[in-house]
Amino acid sequence: MTRRFFASIVLFAGLLTTNKAHAQAVPTATRGVQLSAFGGVAGVYTGVADGRNASIVLGGDIAFSVFHGTRPSVEVRGLFPIDSGSVLDQRSILFGPRVAFLPQRRFHPYGDFLFGRGEINYLHGGYIFGPFLYVQTTTNVFSPGFGLDYDLTPQISLKVDGQYQHWGYTPTSSGSAWSKVGTVGVVYRFNFGSRRLP
After folding, report:
1. pTM for the full model?
2. Which structural domain, as residue segments, surrounds residue 52?
3. Does residue 4 form part of some domain?
4. Contacts of 44 (CB under 8 A, 6+ apart)
5. Where are the beta strands (DSSP E) in the chain?
6. What's the CA gap between 29 and 116, in Å, rounded?
């Protein structure tokens, strides 16, 4: 049993090495749908009353076959505050299209446009703006963004990401706010028989 176990490990390691050595020789167009997950920490400038949050970002992507040197995907991500600062916190669940570039390189710049719903909680009993007391608001969120994934292994990448989020129903003169979210994190790609995900 032990001998069979070690033989299986050696065979598995050999297959991984072979796949890695020949990965660039495999036509990109043969790569199919692939699933990945990511997580990271984010600094958030809320755009309301100089509020700042430290948050966790969690999400995932379903990526499709490479098309003209790009790899399209659908992304979902959540923003969850862990340090709300002194004014408010923002949390959201967003999804939308994402396009990655340079699929055969270690560096994969990408752009996305996400949308969904967000919630703002105002601390210490609420925030007064004009004649109104804001305690909690829920609104649509639109979030164009860009980022860069850097491959460490065929399964794991480092992520640097920036999002520029539009929030409505906020205590500002325009009634809306632009939040800036900067994220550093890690991506894990699930194999399922597919090749490297940009």
Report:
1. 0.79
2. 29-189
3. no
4. 52, 53, 54, 55, 79, 81, 90, 179, 180, 181
5. 34-45, 52-63, 70-83, 88-101, 107-122, 127-129, 132-134, 136-151, 156-168, 176-189
6. 31
Q: Rounded CA gap, 97 and 153, in Å?
A: 25
* Domain assignment present for 184: yes
Q: How far apart are CA 101 and CA 96, in angstroms?
A: 17
CB 60 within 8 A of CB 48: no
CATH number where 143 lies: 2.40.160.20
pLDDT tens profile 131-179: 999 999 999 999 999 999 999 999 999 999 999 999 999 999 999 999 9
Helix (H) or strand (E) holding 2: helix 2-22
In a domain, residue 195? The reply is no
One DSSP character per residue, 69-126 reads TEEEEEEEEEEEEEE-TTTEEEEEEEEEEEEEE-TTSSEEEEEEEEEEEEEEEESTT-
pLDDT tens figures, 3-55: 443 344 444 444 444 444 444 433 334 358 999 999 999 999 999 988 999 99
- Give the N- to C-terminal CA distance of the chain in Å, as an integer: 39
Pairwise CA distance, residues 127 & 88, whole Å: 8
